[in-house]
Amino acid sequence: MLGGSTSTNFMMYVRGNKEDFNRWSTEDLGGDPQWNYDSLLPYFKKSEDYNGVYASDPASAEYHGKGGLRNVATYDFQPGVDEFLAAAVEKGYTIGDYNGANQEVFSKIDLTTQNGWRESTYRAFYRDTGKPSNLCIKKYAHVTKISFKTVSGQPKATSVTYKRQGLTRTVTATKEIILSAGTFGSAKLLMLSGVGPAEHLGDVTAQAAVSYLSTGNGVLAASDALAGQAFFKSPVAEPDYADLQVIQFSFGLYPQLPQDMNRMVGIRADILDKWFDPYHKTNTDARFCLLIAGRPKSFGNMTLASTNPDDNPIQDPQYLANPDDVEAMLFGFKKIVDLYENTAALNTTLFLKPVPGCESLVFKSDDYYRCVIRMFSFTIYHHVGSCSLGKVVDSQLKVKGIDGLRVIDASVMPRLPNGNTQAATIMIAEKGSDLIIANM
Ligand SMILES: Cc1cc2nc3c(=O)[nH]c(=O)nc-3n(C[C@H](O)[C@H](O)[C@H](O)COP(=O)(O)OP(=O)(O)OC[C@H]3O[C@@H](n4cnc5c(N)ncnc54)[C@H](O)[C@@H]3O)c2cc1C
């Protein structure tokens, strides 16, 4: 799909915490200063045309770009956000710009839209900006392989093979190949081409060119459980900065909600139907909170199912495998319940029916919440880390040990930023384009 996930995502513009990027620089790249937050901030700003609620604040220029190709604005329709923010004030939390100096704030949500339309990367960087004549897009082309030649004793990526409308074609690169197939697509293509952990590729492919993706440290993704926008730090946060994100959803309970939620996040509709019954049959107003473990300590794995490029890879996300992730969310859960139940502005009660599967536990006890977190978690689609900086690609985004091949997409993030991932992905793309130009 043109625009990739930005053509289907929830459009939230959230960069993550400054310290997330500083850790890329120090922990993942051995102290390379070009990947710390201060060095990356110009790349966040470059593509941004910021028209959010803080646009008139002179201090916002330090953190926000103006005149970039992608509109970022606080959207008008956020029903219930005023009570959410008033409750935060009652509790002594700070209201502010989560993409600014301090992430640990409550706020309205900024989106990537333009005149009410979704502003995907396809619209922002291609369709609405004059369709650059030196770019050729082959729609419906499915890349199946990257091929290599040995040049001066080192593998060099030389061509890409793709299938399109029943035909197989190979294109040869004159300079280099840029892989941007996303966290699952890029790692899958590398492995299909023989780049990956030798012990795995030995099982599924004819030959392994390079061994890089280390098992146990592959795909990393946030999971979340049902609970404006806020960021918290839990007691198990390491290092010591915000590791939780909270997003309020104000939608009512209505008869089709179980089916709609099933389509959105995959929770079984029959379980939701049992839990909501009978309230969703009476069109009752409700507030939902999404609690996201933004810096999970659990890591998943991704392997090839076979050498057939049409087969999906095997994903083993290992959500909540590290007990600290549950404890972080337990802390967040209790904070949210306290905010909703113990403020005049919200004056709301936790949905009184126990979550199916947790009925035997004392309602609102820590063990009850832990059960809810384990029973009701799902992915929020922020998968990263399959081709991570430091392990698979170097600080130039070049695949280690191979010439002529870079990866530029969410897969290179070595750890999740505490936030949604499109802003950081586009920042990486802006940085990547400068790295390419510098090598020309
Ligand atoms: C439902 C959903 C909601 C989300 N909500 C938000 C949000 O509100 N805010 C936010 O910041 N982030 C959100 N995200 C995450 C964010 O959109 C992604 O992290 C980001 O877009 C990743 O960009 P990418 O370029 O790495 O990969 P992708 O966007 O996945 O793009 C990869 C592209 O490569 C193509 N591709 C893959 N394999 C091949 C192949 N073999 N041949 C040819 N093409 C191939 C794919 O079709 C796709 O078009 C959401 C994601 C999803 C799925």
Automatic annotation (TrEMBL):
Its cofactor is FAD. Residues 296-429 form the Glucose-methanol-choline oxidoreductase C-terminal domain. InterPro entries: FAD/NAD-bd_sf, GMC_OxRdtase, GMC_OxRdtase_N, GMC_OxRtase_C. GO terms for molecular function: flavin adenine dinucleotide binding; oxidoreductase activity, acting on CH-OH group of donors. Gene3D superfamilies: FAD/NAD(P)-binding domain (3.50.50.60), Glucose Oxidase, domain 3 (3.30.560.10). Keywords: FAD, Flavoprotein. The keyword Flavoprotein applies. The keyword Flavoprotein applies. FAD binds at residue 143. Transmembrane segments: none annotated. It holds the Pfam family GMC_oxred_C. Residues 2-203 form the Glucose-methanol-choline oxidoreductase N-terminal domain. Belongs to the GMC oxidoreductase family. This is Glucose dehydrogenase [FAD, quinone]. The lineage of its organism: Eukaryota, Metazoa, Ecdysozoa, Arthropoda, Hexapoda.
